[in-house]
Design brief:
The chain is mainly α and 69 residues long. 84% of the residues lie in helices and 0% in strands.
Length: 69
């Protein structure tokens, strides 16, 4: 996918930008759903932080944002 988008960016930058936007929206939606599932299961922010290799505060933000879904 990376190679195709890179080639598209060289030949049709507007199409590549549009595709990148679609991918961002898909990734954001999937991420919120996954974080929501973790909230539903009672997974702690510490466990999420460890799994993602990030800080507890960033993990907490992900989980809190998912609760708004």
């Amino acid at each position: 996918m990376t190679e195709r988008l890179t080639a598209t960016a060289a030949n049709a930058p507007l199409a590549a930008l549009r595709a990148a936007g679609v991918l961002e929206r898909i990734a954001a939606r999937v991420g919120r759903n996954a974080a929501g599932a973790l909230c539903d299961e009672g997974i702690s922010a510490e466990a999420v932080a460890t799994a993602l290799g990030t800080t507890r505060s960033k993990a907490q933000i992900l989980l809190l944002t998912a609760q708004d879904r």
